[in-house]
Automatic annotation (TrEMBL):
Domain of life, source organism: Bacteria
Lineage: Bacteria, Pseudomonadati, Spirochaetota, Spirochaetia, Spirochaetales
Transmembrane segments: none
Ranges of residues in domain NmrA-like: 4-241
InterPro entries assigned to the protein according to its UniProt record, in alphabetical order: NAD(P)-bd_dom_sf (IPR036291), NmrA-like (IPR008030), NmrA-type_oxidoreductase (IPR052718)
The protein, known as: NmrA family protein
Length: 282
């Protein structure tokens, strides 16, 4: 049996669909959800939906019963994820799960990206768990730029404090396909995969957005402080604005600039180009 955590989320739902595309019977897939009402689309496909919460290890142990290979999609609550992921890993151990694939971040063990520490901690938990693991170091989701690109339709700019930093993003659909292929094949067991697209900078992002929107879009370079001020002015709490500005700063420092063919090898085709990624966002 295959298990997918966060199965009602965008990435999780895509993984479930990809598993079915790969020939996995829906009855062999268990989707973990916190809210059954949000899982109706999965149940209509014949997926077994089980309720489990990353903060409730008992619910996870019950949900993972019979799961042999599990995809742990990292939680969304920054600051709580290491503890939540520990609950998932310990519950999987207790349930008899043999393999966990985990969605991490590029170079989690050495990166200064503010998101990296919890991913590094989770990777270490997996290494010491006694379970077989596959680390899927997803670089960056193209979907993270949906708001910026749509706003550029009116503003004509994409503003960031990322300097000349590069990002090797890929679409969630490509990451989901890779995760599904890893889940159904033991050939990746024990591996750490750096999953990334072709690196691009923000000038190239603006150009790709302009082509997709049919108008001139330019990259507006702003300071870290101005980035924070603009986010606060748009209604974001100061702590959140400071965190997002820190992400920009880490991109400028090169934390997401990585060249790797792992994603292409798993997909057995090139991942979507930047231009194709941007078109999917509109």
């Amino acid at each position: 049996m295959y298990g997918v955590t966060g199965a009602t989320g965008e990435l999780g739902s895509l993984v479930v669909s990809q598993l079915i595309n790969l020939g996995v019977q829906p009855s062999s897939i268990i989707g973990l959800a916190r809210n059954r009402s949000k899982a109706a689309h999965l149940e209509k496909q014949g997926i077994t939906v089980r309720i489990g919460d990353y903060d409730d290890q008992a619910s996870l142990r019950k949900a993972f019963t019979g799961v042999d290979r599990l995809l742990l999609i990292s939680g969304s609550e920054v600051g709580k994820r290491a503890a939540q992921h520990q609950n998932v890993i310990e519950a999987a151990q207790a349930a008899g799960t043999k393999t966990i694939a985990y969605t991490s971040i590029s170079r989690a063990d050495t990166s200064n990206n503010p998101l990296a520490p919890e991913h590094k901690a989770t990777e270490e938990l997996l290494r010491h768990s006694g379970l077989t693991s596959v680390i899927l170091r997803n670089n960056w989701y193209a979907e993270n730029y949906t708001g910026d690109i749509r706003a550029a339709r009116d503003s004509g700019t994409i503003a960031a404090a990322a300097g000349d930093g590069k990002v090797a993003s890929a679409s969630k659909s490509d990451y989901a396909e890779a995760a599904a292929k890893v889940l159904v094949s033991e050939s990746y067991d024990g591996m750490t995969l750096e999953l990334a697209g072709t690196p691009w900078n923000y000038e190239q992002l603006a150009s790709a957005a302009g082509k997709a929107l049919g108008k001139d879009i330019r990259y507006e370079r702003i300071s870290i402080e101005e980035r924070k001020q603009r986010l606060v002015a748009a209604g974001m709490p100061e702590a959140g604005a400071a965190f997002y500005a820190q992400l920009d700063e880490s991109i400028a420092a090169g934390t997401l600039d990585i060249s790797s063919s792992d994603l292409e090898k798993v997909l057995e085709r090139p991942p979507l180009s930047l231009e194709e990624q941007v078109k999917k966002l509109l």
